Amino acid sequence: MAEKKNLNEKIAELDKRVEWFYSDEFELGEAVARYEEATELAKEIERDLGELKNEIEVLTEDFSK
Questions:
Q1: Where along the chain do its domains lie?
Q2: Distance of CA 36 to CAs 1, 10, 21, 43, 46, Å?
Q3: What is the model's pTM?
Q4: What is the pLDDT of residues 7-60, one digit of tens each?
Q5: Which residues, 6 or more positions from 31, have their beta carbon under 8 angstroms from its beta carbon?
């Protein structure tokens, strides 16, 4: 079973994927597949951030009572 990555690890991985587009290793033939992978990872990060925001809102509400 694959280990679940935390938000910081996912952001670091996305940064690496984006850096590839600016590197000397960039190849047009690979660009579409790598772009799709990066887009999926970005969506996952966005979902994680949404969940974190909801948790913070719940905690803030609980402490304001």
A1: 7-63
A2: 24, 15, 13, 11, 15
A3: 0.79
A4: 999 999 999 999 999 999 999 999 999 999 999 999 999 999 999 999 998 888
A5: 21
